[in-house]
Amino acid sequence: MHAAAWTDVDGAEADPQGAAAVNVGGTAHVAELGAPLVYVSTDYVFDGSKGAPYVESDSPSPLSVYGRTKLLGEAAAGERAWIVRTSGLYGWTGRNFVRTILALGAERDEVAVVDDQHLAPTYVGHLAEALRKVVELPTGIWHVAAEGECTWAEFAEAIFAEAGVRCRVRRVSTEELGRPAPRPAYSVLRSERDGAPRLPHWREGLRACLERLPI
Predict the structure, then answer these.
(1) CB count in 10 Å sphere of residue 166
(2) Under a CB-based contact definition with an 8 Å cutoff, are residues 73 and 29 in contact?
(3) Domains, the chain, with CATH or none
(4) Tell me: the pLDDT tens digits for 177-200?
(5) Quick check: 113 and 104 in contact, CB under 8 A?
(6) Is 66 a catalytic residue?
(7) What is the pTM assigned to this prediction?
(8) How far apart are the C-alpha atoms of 21 and 163, rounded to whole Å?
């Protein structure tokens, strides 16, 4: 199970060689072991121009260094690997959107969050359960993400509502936020393959995650 990655999307723009060393070179090293391989990839391999959920047969066209290195990592994993693309991963540990938003909400009365990027935020606990099923399926590309979709701003509002945090979300555009790395405006993932695992709705995932967080 190869889940290690350079996931700092903006940082990758400043250090493309570093991101490639981890996401491409690191994956190649894992593949060299010759063991059955599950490679966790990302919705950011797409450019968002489709405006509808992406399925496995859609052609990737990454906008950012991060997206390009993850796509090259898919190739490095090889044709005999399970390539599992997912979206907006978060959990009760590590650095992720849920923990960051909760920390900001504890310090501020208002946070600015983009409202023009659509995704299907996926709880890592639900993804982990689904990966058990993926390895019983044929190798190749699989899209495994939460049901439903939302913008990052809608996700932040749901986090505060579910956690009982009194903090406002100021909805802003991607242009207003001015981050270094370009991001897809729409990167919701769905599967067209028979037997693909279906995850619970993203709000169910959020509740499950918050139950494990000391709020």
Answers:
(1) 7
(2) no
(3) 9-211 (3.40.50.720)
(4) 889 999 999 999 999 999 999 999
(5) no
(6) yes
(7) 0.94
(8) 38
